[in-house]
Design a protein that fits this description.
Elements (H helix, E strand, L loop, with lengths): L13 E7 L11 E7 L3 H14 L3 E4 L5 E2 L5 E7 L7 E4 L2 E5 L4 H10 L2 E2 L11 H6 L3 E2 L2 E2 L4 E8 L3 E6 L18 E9 L1 E2 L2 H18 L19 H7 L6 E2 L2 E3 L7 E3 L5 H19 L8 E2 L1
Parallel strand pairs: 2-5, 3-5, 4-18
Antiparallel strand pairs: 1-2, 6-7, 7-13, 8-14, 9-10, 11-12, 11-13, 15-16, 16-17
The protein binds flavin-adenine dinucleotide.
The site of flavin-adenine dinucleotide has 33 residues, from strand 3, helix 3, strand 9 and strand 13.
């Protein structure tokens, strides 16, 4: 698809024609997107979404790209990443209003500083608030969705609506947002609990220590690749199937955490997809269990 610079609506934010997706995903993999846009504010976002609608161009909203695999062929359409005015965080007592583009780590730091508890277990998840809502990010029994009061959404750039927690059908790594790719999450309201600052920081230190010990954080990855089946953790099944260290090109099953695929240098999306298929096959042959990927392929 040819998107020319001079056709684009004038926005305050950034637009890049032919953007490599490598640096927009935590796996550091992906071909070129026709257009990458960072809307600075709501007005920008509406202009871009109505441009896509008018020209019938597909769009895809990303957060920090930490649960995504972008094909080597890239993306034929517009990739949107929310800009600065979508990263604001405010609190009124225990209630938080946070922009969907804010990093989870910034939010957790903000709340911990104010003695607000409820998000500690999510420490170390490298996503944004928007991405964490969509994939219902969770760790050690805590999820962001458990704290959600409401979410403000923009539908195809036209209508705003507010969803309450009951409308969002949160499940394991899923929500109603996965089925509505033309909705953009703008803002999230959360209810936290008051806690002792020193307890909150001590819990954060404990969680970080556990993550450093158990996750291969020095290599690019997208976190867990497969959902845990109800019977056994996916990592256990992968290990039992003899897949630790299994490699396709530069994509490798981590020795440190069997449910992570790491990029050892120049892995391609094709390498990752071949590795996923091989792991699924070996696990099925060994245990009869079909693993389901939680990594989203754009
Ligand atoms: C080292 C590492 C550790 C991890 N640990 C965990 C963990 O413990 N628990 C866990 O649950 N996950 C974990 N993850 C996975 C990932 O970080 C989370 O799923 C995170 O919530 C994804 O957020 P993101 O902003 O990167 O979303 P992306 O990967 O960019 O996008 C995910 C989905 O959200 C959509 N999306 C993003 N923003 C918006 C928006 N504003 N409006 C509409 N749709 C939007 C995208 O279209 C896509 O469908 C880990 C990943 C890594 C690399």
């Amino acid at each position: 698809m040819q998107i020319r610079e001079n056709q684009l609506p004038k926005i305050k934010g950034k637009t890049v024609v032919h953007q490599s997706m490598e640096n927009l995903t935590s796996l550091k993999i992906g071909g070129v997107a026709d257009l990458f846009v960072v809307p600075e504010d709501l007005e920008d976002l509406k202009l871009i979404l109505s441009f896509c609608k008018r020209k019938k161009i597909p769009f895809f909203v990303i957060g920090n790209g930490s649960k995504l695999l972008v094909p080597d062929e890239g993306f034929k359409g517009v990739i949107i990443k929310l800009g600065d005015s979508f990263r604001k965080i405010e609190n009124h007592k225990e209630e938080i209003k946070v922009g969907a583009g804010a990093d989870l780590s910034t939010l957790i730091n903000f709340t911990a500083q104010r003695g607000l508890s409820g998000l500690e277990s999510l420490s170390g998840i490298p996503g944004t608030v928007g991405g964490a809502m969509v994939r219902n990010a969770s760790a050690f029994g805590q999820s962001l969705s458990q704290r959600v009061l409401s979410v403000k959404v923009l539908n195809k750039g036209e209508t705003y609506f507010v969803l309450s927690d009951k409308d969002m059908n949160f499940g394991y790594r899923t929500s109603t947002f996965l089925a509505h790719k033309d909705w953009v999450i703008i803002e999230v309201n959360l209810a936290l609990s008051s806690g002792k600052k020193e307890d909150i920081f001590s819990r954060l230190r404990e969680i970080r220590k556990r993550k450093i010990l158990t996750q291969p954080i020095s290599f690019p990855s997208a976190g867990c690749v497969f959902k845990n089946p109800s019977s056994y953790p996916a990592g256990y099944l992968i290990q039992q199937a003899g897949c630790l260290g299994l490699r396709m090109g530069d994509a490798q099953v981590s020795h440190q955490h069997a449910n992570f695929i790491i990029n050892k240098g120049k892995a391609t999306a094709q390498d990752v997809l071949r590795l996923i298929e091989e792991v699924k096959k070996r696990v099925r042959d060994r245990s009869g269990i079909s693993l389901e990927p939680e990594l989203e392929i754009i």
